[in-house]
Amino acid sequence: MSRRYALVSPCRNEAAFMRRTLDSIVAQSELPAALIIVDDGSSDDTAAIAAEFSASHPWISVHTRADRGSRRVGGGVIEAFNDGYDQLDLQSIDYVCKLDMDLILPPTYFADLMDRMESDPKLGTCSGKPFYHHPETGVPTSEFCGSEMSVGMTKFYRLPCFQDIGGFVSEAGWDGIDCHVCRMRGWWAEAYDDPQLAFEHLRPMGSSQVNIWHGRVRNGRSLWFLGTHPIYMLAIGIFRLPKRPRLIGAMGMMWGYLKAWLARTPQYGDTAYRRFVHRYQLRALIVGKMAAAKEAYERSNAERAAS
């Protein structure tokens, strides 16, 4: 089977991290067919570092966007990704990955993901799981990502699946919506808890350019937009209470969700999509997320076969 993959990396002011990310990409056991770095209006040395690597590696190219004046999480990053994706020759690749520029990847990362894709033709998207070094102890610490979603910082997709779901939604919450739509359309999504696929996240998940509180409030708003059931959201808040940052992180997420609810902020999708998500989430409270995801995936495939 062909193993041609392309990376699209939207980034804005990532000079502090991206060199280490690019070094880990260049060191991959199987190099990508293309890496498109989308400089989304950076004001630091992002463009210079990207140009340096592009000059040394012909499969790396840089696409520059005008500075919109501020960082725009969710919609902004997907708009930048889409600009890079539009530069790809889709006839020449089999897989595509939205890749952040604040990661350190193990050397066989993409080869291992493609091995898993080849062993399961219904595996539409997958990833490893991130860890960070604890700021107080320096100990590698898991970011506690579930296994039923490929993680947002390395969304590795089989190209036909990515095209089938219509790409990413240009709103915060896009990195959960895509996996729900995958299962609705009969594709499997998974993040593997495998040491060979563990990668370092240089910026803790849920933080933002402002602070942790701002990031967690934003996360709560995105969970509302995704269509999260209120009971499931309460369970998320309780689960997050002891996680770093203790209490504050959970309260920020709950406040962001509640504010969006009270403001009657529009949610993604139609009633069929939200019904699918609610059924999965309420079932997950009983049997666990992974078991509920498998039930939803199998139910979708059965319904598609019957029709």
Judging by the overall fold, what is the CATH architecture of the largest domain?
Alpha-Beta Complex
* Overall helicity: 40-55%
Q: How many beta strands in the DSSP annotation?
A: 11
Low-confidence stretches: none
Tell me the overall shape: globular
Cα gyration radius (Å): 19 Å
Tally the structural domains: 3
Largest sheet: 7 strands, mixed
CATH topology of the largest domain: Spore Coat Polysaccharide Biosynthesis Protein SpsA, Chain A
Output the structural class.
alpha/beta
CATH class of the largest domain: Alpha Beta
Our count of helices gives 11
Mean pLDDT: 94
CATH superfamily of the largest domain: Spore Coat Polysaccharide Biosynthesis Protein SpsA, Chain A
The strand line-up of the biggest sheet is 3-2-1-4-9-6-10
**In whole angstroms, how far apart are the ends?**
30 Å
List the helices and strands and how they pair.
Layout: E1 5-11, H1 18-26, E2 34-40, H2 46-56, E3 60-65, H3 75-85, E4 95-99, E5 103-104, H4 109-119, E6 123-127, E7 130-133, E8 140-142, E9 154-158, H5 159-164, H6 174-184, E10 188-191, E11 199-201, H7 212-226, H8 230-240, H9 248-262, H10 271-287, H11 289-306
Parallel strand pairs: 1-2, 1-4, 2-3, 6-10, 7-11
Antiparallel strand pairs: 4-9, 5-11, 6-9, 7-8
Helix pairs in contact: 7-9, 8-9, 10-11
